[in-house]
Amino acid sequence: MSIKVSNLFYTYAKKTPNEHLALNDVSLEIKQGDFVSIVGHTGSGKSTLVQHLNGLLVADSGLIEIDDFTVYPYKQRRKNKKLHSLRKHVGVVFQFPEYQLFEETIVKDVAFGPKNFKIKEKEATEIAKKALLSVGIPETYFERSPFELSGGERRRVAIAGIFALEPDIVILDEPTAGLDPKGQEEIMNLLVKMNQEGKTIILVTHDMDLVLRYTNHVFVLKDKELVFSGTPIELFSHNREDLSIEIPPLFTFARKLKNRGLDINISDIRNVDDLFEQIQKEKKR
Amino acid sequence: MNSLTFGRYTTFNTFIHKVDARNKILLLILLLVAIFLKFSVWSTALILSGVLFISLIILMLISKVSFLQLLKSLLGMWFLILFLLAIYIFVPNSSYHMLWVTWWKINIYYDAFFQCGYIILRLLMMLGLTMVLTATTKPMDLTHGFEWYMTPLKVIRFPVHEIAMTISIALRFIPTLLEETERIMKAQASRGVDYSRGRFFKKVRALFSLIIPLLISSFQRSEELADAMEARGYNPKEKRTSYSKLSFTWRDIIAFLIGGGIFAGVLVLFIYDKNTANIDLINMFFGVSIGW
Ligand SMILES: Nc1ncnc2c1ncn2[C@@H]1O[C@H](COP(=O)(O)OP(=O)(O)O)[C@@H](O)[C@H]1O
Ligand SMILES: [Mg+2]
């Protein structure tokens, strides 16, 4: 499923003294099977943007087209009849999703989503178990209460709750914030796996290492506007102080090596191992 | 969501916003009394209500509280209105004397409709006044105001400060809770919950998916807050100073003169009405008497 967003505007608390423009003329396209990231400062509108993609927020103006679904802006909201089924195809994992758990057991909680989309209890439970295993929650936990888990485990259960919908597009809003490095790595590996299965992944993050390492396209939001769209290498290759982006140390390091005369191909370097390989290859020559 | 925002503090900076909270509380009480004083002559009651109603509209215009929303809140009270109307119509009242129709031996009087309309008008004014207070006064100032009035109760060991602190914390967390509610509703909507449609059982289930996370995070929050307060040495028995000082200015004098003036005027008429019986304003000013 590909996504096309055109000329999106959104204002919070419209017609009140607290009125606040959050998205200003944002247009972008995401292809089927992409692994993209959305970055930008806190308050730049990232969360607002992704909430439009499954119709949780309805724009002031602008269109969102996802395959044959179209989300119309507020004035034509009567045409938005299929939002419910859109949410089956576009799963959004919210920032701090651990606060959405409520059932007595973990399995029941994860099965809650599929059941809302008219999947029978038994089948939903099966899907839930599969989703839980995939996020690394072992079977011995299944009958526990979600409130007995640690924060990181709860986060993974909540993420499984969205995976269990088996969406074609998975959107995650800062899923690794506040997790330990191991937990981060597990979640990222899971996303890579889902991406390889053909799902489109949209990752909202502050972590430029993740952007460089995992994603093939990056969008930068700054002050309510989309200011960059391209590959991570393109983003980091230029001086990006105007975008207030921090270039990953690995990338800076590789570039310095190259500038000093080491013949390496920067656009192939996604992580430390890549760099290591290239340096070795260079040494052998 | 819009109806929830009615009466919530607005960040405008009008004359009324700047009047001291204690003053506004006092004036609210005085004006409520003025609204609910009962006059024996119909025309007098109507004229006074009219005067009060126009004053309320002016007040709402000055303080930028939406009058339209006040009228809309009437729609929300349709059940109450029907209920009141039924009571006024079907409960016999010997003072009624303008017969409209008789249905199955029940006499329906025009008076019943007048009475009902009159009480609704007064309820509406009460609501409007209260909304002006809450929309123009920061919740914190409001609690400080109430605390100030209750200070004498400290003599009888009434925990004035503790109660004020509890109330101000509760008020402080209302917007947070609303935000949290919105967030959880969105998160559950992403999991396919449809809060508006579905059968009764499904709706109850949907409600659970909202209320349980809300309760849990509230408990968690209150525990954290208690810990944080204790860590910073909070002791309810200690004498405390306040960050926001309530203060009287020339605005308060003006507001008090106007509000108090209206109250005094109504009160004088009321006492006169009780003592010398039945003042009829129309008769007094125009020399004619409209007998009902
Ligand atoms: N529910 C809301 N009501 C009012 N303003 C909001 C709300 N949510 C976010 N905002 C404002 O909109 C802007 C964009 O917020 P958000 O999309 O959450 O940014 P990000 O996710 O990039 O940090 C911020 O300035 C924020 O204060
Ligand atoms: Mg955000």
Structure description:
- The complex is a heterodimer of chains A (285) and B (292).
- Chain A is of the alpha/beta class.
- Chain A folds into 2 domains: 31-56 and 83-240, Rossmann fold (3-Layer(aba) Sandwich), CATH 3.40.50.300; 248-285, no CATH class.
- Helices cover 37% and strands 21% of the residues of chain A.
- Chain A contains 10 helices and 10 strands.
- In chain A, strand 1 and strand 2 (20-30) form a beta hairpin.
- The longest helix of chain A has 16 residues, at 181-196.
- Chain B has 292 residues and is mostly helical.
- Chain B has 2 domains: 1-136 and 246-292, no CATH class; 160-235, no CATH class.
- Chain B is built from 12 helices and 2 strands.
- A two-stranded antiparallel ribbon of chain B has the order 1-2.
- In chain B, a hairpin with a 2-residue loop joins strand 1 (99-103) and strand 2.
- The two termini of chain B are 45 Å apart.
- The model of chain B has no long low-confidence stretch (mean pLDDT 84).
- The A-B interface holds A 16-18, 51, 54, 56, 84, 87-88, 91-94, 97, 99-102, 112-114, 116-117, 147, 161-162, 165 and B 5, 10-12, 180, 183-184, 186-194, 208-209, 212-213, 216-217.
- The complex binds adenosine-5'-diphosphate (ADP) and magnesium ion (MG).
- Magnesium ion binds next to helix 1 of chain A.
- Adenosine-5'-diphosphate binds next to strand 2 and helix 1 of chain A.
Task: Give keywords.
heterodimer, A: 285 residues, alpha/beta, Rossmann fold, 2 domains, six-stranded mixed beta sheet, four-stranded antiparallel beta sheet, 10 helices, globular, B: 292 residues, mainly alpha, two-stranded antiparallel ribbon, 12 helices, 70% helix, binds adenosine-5'-diphosphate, binds magnesium ion
Write the layout of secondary structure elements.
The complex is a heterodimer of chains A (285) and B (292).
Chain A: E1 3-12, E2 20-30, E3 35-39, H1 46-53, E4 61-66, E5 69-71, H2 83-89, E6 90-93, H3 106-116, H4 121-134, H5 151-163, E7 169-173, H6 181-196, E8 200-204, H7 208-214, E9 217-222, E10 225-230, H8 232-237, H9 249-259, H10 272-284
Parallel strand pairs in A: 3-8, 3-9, 6-7, 7-8
Antiparallel strand pairs in A: 1-2, 1-4, 4-5, 9-10
Helix pairs in contact in A: 3-4, 3-5, 4-5
Chain B: H1 2-5, H2 15-18, H3 21-36, H4 42-63, H5 67-76, H6 78-90, E1 99-103, E2 106-109, H7 110-136, H8 139-150, H9 160-190, H10 200-231, H11 250-276, H12 281-286
Antiparallel strand pairs in B: 1-2
Helix pairs in contact in B: 3-7, 3-8, 3-11, 4-7, 6-7, 8-9, 9-10
